[in-house]
Structures are given as structure tokens and as C-alpha cells.
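Incident log, support desk, overnight shift.

02:14 A customer reports that sequence design results differ from what the structure should imply. Their input is reproduced verbatim below. On-call engineer (initials T.W.) acknowledged and began investigating.
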């Protein structure tokens, strides 16, 4: 049956940024599809744990530094015995006029959104290769992987780079049975967009351009994530899937 190819039964996933928003939604969707989930967050993912139950394990780690990568990988292996899926969801954004944008704001965003993403992906890919059974990597990109945005130069740079390394790693690792893809969420009602949603003028401008006529929610992303994590996407590699309510088509 075709629906069987979407099952994640017996799979183990690492999802970063698991305590709220998109990461929490992806954790829940993976668990409902049958996976065991190691959720990585700086603060306890208490609500996520309550939503999912025993198939969820929380790893407390600050992804602003690569020093935590061995901990994330080893703790997942200690708990679940293997890794089959990685979702690089954790990310931060700093808003400041580009003419005044600080080095601190640049470095903090690039560290979380790009540097740690790359080296965590590298470490998990090595585990996939050691296991000999391939794996799925899903990077969370953005509308700003395609567009410039306003007052978010480091975020735009990091998310443009995410789209690029998704293609690069897919090219190199397909021979190992590793699929590397990305999801580009549109304007989602999450912590990262709180400032925009509170700005009545900017929020109205954004909504006017979205054909769906509303902000997205974490639930809107869950089907795409399960698809890219499952056998249903085995011949999809190096692609960034927009889940944007039609924003890019406008």
C-alpha cells in the first residue's frame, strides 16, 4: 500500500529546536508516524514530551557552539541505538538595519543557523555511513533562501546558504543512500515572526501577498517533513520544498 511508504515505524529521528513551534510540530508528526524522537533544545521540551510521551527523549544542548555535537549524537545512540533522520530546525534571527548591523548579531546567527547545522549534519552522516543503511536529512530553509528580506542580513545569508549546502551534500552523499533535502516555510506564526505579526502594517502587507490569506502554522509543515523523512521520498534529493501558502508563486 502506498501509505506504508510514509510510515516511520522503527526509525529514530533527531529534531533540533524541539521545544516550540515548527520543531515541536515535526516531533509530534514523526512520533505519530511511528518514529522515536530525540529532540534537542536549550531549555527542557516539557510540552513536547507531554504531547508525545515515551517515544520522545529530550537532549539539552546549546547549538550556538559545535562543542555539543558529540553529546547530541552519542546521547541519541545511547537512548535509541541508531539514527535514521536528522531535522536541522533550530535557528535564530536578529533584526537590525543593515547599515548598523553588528558583528555580534552576524556571528550569533551564522553560528546557530549555518555552522552548527553543517557540522551536526556531517557527524550524523558519518553515523549513517557506519550503519550502512542510509538516512534522511531535512534542513529548514526559509522564504529568505530565495529573497532578500528587510533588516535581517545574517538570517538571509544563513538561509540562502542552507539551500546551497542542501544541494552540495545531496550531490556528495547520495551514493551512501543519504537523502538531503530542505523545507522552506513561508510566513509562520512562530516565535521568530512575533515582531512582524505585532507590526500591524507589516503583517497586513505580508498577508496581502499570501494567496492562502493567512499565516502558516506548525501543522502546515508536518506532512512535508514526514514525506521527506520517509521512504516515499527516496528519489528526492537536493530539493528545497516551499510550504508557503503560495507566497513564491505570487
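02:41 Re-run completed on a clean worker. Output:
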Amino acid at each position: 500500500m502506498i501509505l506504508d511508504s510514509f510510515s516511520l515505524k522503527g526509525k529514530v529521528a533527531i529534531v533540533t529546536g524541539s521545544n516550540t513551534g515548527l520543531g515541536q510540530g515535526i516531533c509530534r508528526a514523526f512520533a505519530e508516524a511511528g518514529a522515536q524522537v530525540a529532540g534537542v533544545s536549550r531549555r527542557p521540551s516539557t510540552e513536547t514530551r507531554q504531547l508525545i510521551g515515551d517515544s520522545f527523549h529530550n537532549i539539552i544542548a546549546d547549538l550556538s557552539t559545535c562543542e555539543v555535537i558529540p553529546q547530541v549524537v552519542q546521547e541519541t545512540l545511547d537512548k535509541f541505538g541508531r539514527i535514521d533522520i536528522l531535522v536541522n530546525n533550530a535557528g535564530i534571527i536578529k533584526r537590525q538595519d543593515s547599515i548598523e548591523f553588528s558583528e555580534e548579531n552576524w556571528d550569533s546567527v551564522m553560528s546557530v543557523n549555518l555552522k552548527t547545522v553543517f557540522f551536526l549534519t556531517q557527524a550524523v552522516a558519518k553515523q549513517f555511513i557506519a550503519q550502512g543503511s542510509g538516512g534522511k536529512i531535512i534542513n529548514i530553509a526559509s522564504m529568505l533562501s530565495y529573497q532578500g528580506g528587510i533588516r535581517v542580513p545574517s538570517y538571509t545569508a544563513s538561509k540562502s546558504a542552507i539551500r546551497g549546502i542542501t544541494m552540495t551534500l545531496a550531490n556528495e552523499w547520495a551514493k551512501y543512500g543519504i537523502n538531503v533535502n530542505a523545507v522552506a516555510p513561508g510566513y509562520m506564526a512562530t516565535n521568530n515572526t512575533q515582531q512582524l505579526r505585532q507590526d500591524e502594517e507589516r503583517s497586513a502587507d505580508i498577508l496581502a501577498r499570501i494567496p492562502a490569506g493567512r499565516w502558516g502554522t506548525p501543522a502546515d509543515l508536518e506532512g512535508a517533513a514526514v514525506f521527506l523523512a520517509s521512504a516515499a521520498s527516496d528519489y528526492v534529493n537536493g530539493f528545497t520544498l516551499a510550504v508557503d501558502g503560495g507566497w513564491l508563486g505570487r
